[in-house]
Design goal:
The protein is 27% helix and 23% strand. It has helices at residues 10-18, 20-25, 61-72, 84-93, 107-112, 174-182, 193-198, 229-235, and strands at residues 3-5, 30-36, 45-49, 52-59, 76-82, 113-115, 123-128, 150-152, 168-171, 189-192, 212-216.
Amino acid sequence: MKVNLFQIVICSLYIITAHSAQAETLTGQTICICEDGAEWPPYHYLKRENGKKTKEVAAGYGIDVLNEIFGKHGIKYTISFIPWKRCLMEIKKGKKYHMALSGSYNVERDRAYHLVNWYKTTVYYFYSKKHYPNGLNIKGVSDFNKFRMVGLRGYNYQYLGKLEEKMYKNIKNYDELIKILHKGRFDVTFEQYEIFAGFAGIGKNYLGDKYIGYAKIPGNNGNHNDKTEDQIFRQGSVY
């Protein structure tokens, strides 16, 4: 049996538009959500007070939509920010947590979870200008084979194809990811541009680092969905 790994924002559309009857059965119940402790602004992150994280007070576009939809149906929820790999494992067990707000597609996840639609994202590669002042010579995904690739623990980089198997994926957060690039231990990492840009809103302006270089992966059109969060709010309804 598949358990629920709901992708950000569109998870709520699944509950209400695709299976509205199921949404009604959740009225008055509490859904336990886990999210990546590394945070994923602007979609979901912990609020800051005087530059410091608040205790488990979540914010972001995804949280806004969740509140909008769950609120209309009287559904309560709790959200905990824990390591992403652990979050996925806990959802798979189906005991402590019921869903997550984000998660990209790959075959393994499709077999283990119930994946719901996605939204538009643009995947970029990031590197340190301290070691590559002239940038990386990348004309296609296969060119990354020449570089030492690094990623976050438990994250999915399926858009790299078989090259993902060569990645070192044991970094716990974005701060460490940037540091390790500047130290020259690895050459390149990958992330959606929107995420790196979103960190500026919580006091971590990664793109403002003059030594961080980045460019769109050639030929990668990103993920997309017919309705983004912005469209949902412009229409004034999630139905």
